[in-house]
Give the backbone structure.
Amino acid sequence: MQELKERILQYLQEHPRGGRKAADIREALQIEDGSVMNEALQQLGDEYLIFQTLSGRYETREQANVVEGRLSVNRYGTGFIDLDSGNSIRIEERNLLYAMNGDTVLVQCTPWMSEGKVIAVVNHSCTSVIGTYLESGHGLHFIPDDEKLQSRIIRVNVPLDFTPAEGLKVQCAIEKYGNPLVLRLTEVIGHKDDPGVDITAVLLEHDIHMEFPEEAMAQANAVPSYLREEDLEGRTDLRNECTITIDGDDSKDFDDAVSVIKADTGWNLKVSIADVSWYVTEDSPLDLEARKRGCSTYVTDRVVPMLPHILSNGICSLNPKEDRLTLTCEMHVLQDGSVHAYKVYPSVICSNERMTYHNVNLILEKDEALTEKYAHILEMIYDLRDCADAIRRNRIAKGAIEFDSDESVIEVDREGHPLNVYAKHRGHAEEMIEDCMIAANVCVADLMKWQEIPSVYRIHEEPQARRIRSFVNISELLGHKLKVGKTVHPNELQAYLDSIKDTEGYPVLSSMLLRCMQKAKYDSRCVGHFGLAEEEYLHFTSPIRRYPDLIVHRMLRKYSFSMNLDVSERQKDEEKCAEYAEQSSIRERVSQDAEYACDDMKKAEYMESHLGLEADGIITGVTAYGMYVRLENTVEGLVHLNTLTDDYYVFLPERMELAGKRSGKLYRIGMPVHVKVTGADKDERTVDFRLVGKNGIRKERKTVHSRRKDRLIERRLYGRKKRK
């Protein structure tokens, strides 16, 4: 039967224009038993590999414009499927077929592949729903936290001894998809106003769990907390070299350490990374759980680690004054910042000091007290600065793009209530460590590629031409020209960013250009990293926090250090790496979504206590229903169109502007405005603004504009109309 199905598929692919009815297929393939052929057609249809038209013709997925992809649903209920080409397919809520965010679906598209409808759900990603019991006029009702589900008919099956209470937040497993959505209560999280429950609910909503399975914890607890003699065999001993870690003030897991010595022609730089793969073996309970998590998740008041704290903060962490197993990338960096030679090997180190970004930045600024306290490592810190700066200059000269993104810091009290929100400042020390880590990642990627070792690469493909063209148009409207050729080069984009760095529109334009880029992801293919202008790149430096790094370490040991020459095993590992890359990319996106959701929720909660506040901001987006404004503290809110009562405003999508029809007043991206906080909703994760002051709302004019003036303004907005 399988052979017949393959023959039918091949026949349909070879006959795109005709001869695709059942009789045609049977005659062409000389199938004597019609019932067998009908069964094969039925199975192919059930597997969504072929489709039958109203006229009785059969089509393959490609011929029927059917694509498979991961569904993303925005807060307004509209779905999107991202294609490999960089384009997206839009799916209206009525065409979602009750598919949910994250599901793998089949979508039948319009011929121009811009809109479509879900025809089948291949795999349900969402298996549970978080909700709250709230009073709704007719007693307590379960209300999903996900507003996209609040319009659905939902039935919740609960235990006989369960008594709901106002504000109680619970988790439910999905027993039946569709309408109604049938749920079964599985866990009571707590009252929605209890400390930490809000963050816990967001994490569970994204299938991120703090607790580890018993098997994984048993394995972690069995790992020795000290090094044994057999652990040191075959390792280069670097314990007598001056080595330090530099991390954030609150960091507790240290997976990278650096050591540098000045040489006649440059510097000898060693980047030593915790050898997590020595303890987390392939397909062990710890490995399976780490693979499932994909990465650590960092939210407002906690970290959900990829590995249990007993490992990530213990034997795998490069704690000061303690011997630790590592993999070292040793590089000879020339004065111009290029890497002349490198080698990668297993090692053992003993970190001399646990340094923080804050203290290193102060040392570089000649702080007297810290300079005296760390006099024994001052020379190395200054050499590290010079080496890292040279690496950065070299990378930028090659065309790497430096995007300035505003990361938020949200300070909370013990109960999780936000006390302050502000933009995170990146100092020189942060850049130094980043430069050293990127250099090590490039070297290891080069090694893996040229030794043909199965691996998980970090890839960033070049941006789509249409997205760049759209950005060029918007940038020119704001008075900044971006010149690019038929093929976009990263150094062109960096030159553009440098040219606008001192303008007030720079933060928005930089952010918009970043959104024009393809999303970086993991892949078993080495296709380069556009943003870094590197032909080979991967992640090697954070195996405590990222699963792909752990895989890279494992493959290095297996094929480079141990010299495994088994061809069949190498082929199997290549297939595994493709699966690991896909899974890691998915989990990375899920983790980021959870982090963004928590930030948005806490920012809205913070603004709930600052209603009436007036502040300067900048317009970051313009839509048909209003404009988004970001404050200096990174909080973003919406100025609704219906609050602009001084004129009738129309949305000009090709110019990304709101234009006053009578006054000709324009609001566009990058424009500074003064706003007042008029609303905030923690549960909805939204903030509302209103324009005030010099950009504020004027009273309606009592005089009527002349028709001549109206025509002049309309001509300015829409261009001269052709005479009939």
